[in-house]
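Course assignment 3, question 2. Fill in each field.
Student: A.L.
Task: Predict the tertiary structure for the chain below.
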Amino acid sequence: MLTTSLPGGTWTLGGLTVTRFGYGAMQLAGPGVMGPPADRDGALAVLRTAVELGITHIDTSAAYGPQVTNQLIREALHPYPDSLHIVTKVGANRDPQGGWPPARDPRSLRRSVRENLETLGLDVLDLVNLRLGDAAGPRPGSLAEAFETLADLQRQGLIRHLGVSNATPEQVAEAQAIAPIVCVQNMYNLAHRRDDELIDALAGQGVAYVPFFPLGGFSPLQSSVLSTVAARLEAAPMSVALAWLLRRSPNILLIPGTSSAAHLRENVAGAALSLSDDDLAELETIGR
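Answer field:
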């Protein structure tokens, strides 16, 4: 069994044990998540530092760069330790303007899975999330054709586990009716609590919830409350936000991103911050 000193301990994604504190590789690409990083050696150092710290959950996508973060992960870490699990997303491409046009038709999904396998240097992908909605958030609509395509690739042995990203609760339920899922990856933080009921329901099912944008979309007033608590604890606002997420529910997995190894170490230390009942009560006012 994997043991770790990282904050939050571990969680099991299907048959994969991962650290609840993971790493999101999106920021390793260039500006706007397009092109190569300005500091390639620094990007490689971040990935190696993540593994040195004991992180066993790295989140990526072929759309980042595109292909850039996958190439960096392979260069930095291949051959991969047995304990390391790489999670990727499919369902969106990049256009020359830096947009994220959907690519959820069966042909595009099959191509994306094979590109991820090739670029990462893998025979099978540990976990593939189907990206839904758009840059503004989840959008209603059936995911059946797209998710059935991924389920077929899973039956072929190219994918171990499935998940959904940027999904509505209805889409989560629809996916589960097609094939088991092990995680949902949506925007969620102290200020955006839309998925509270979904998180609790997934926890009861043993399904992970992976929030992105831990500091995204805060109003000035909400930011002020967070900053006040952080100042009292002599901590960074990001540290408080990450520590709160780990306390919120045991099925929450963190994938904060950074392009700095030093900042990665700060995030790990910050997530271990101890929050008192008074701190938690004050932070709860942010989402009301």
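Instructor remarks: The beta strands are 10-13, 16-19, 23-24, 57-61, 85-90, 125-131, 159-165, 183-187, 208-212. The chain has ten helices and nine strands.
Grade: pending
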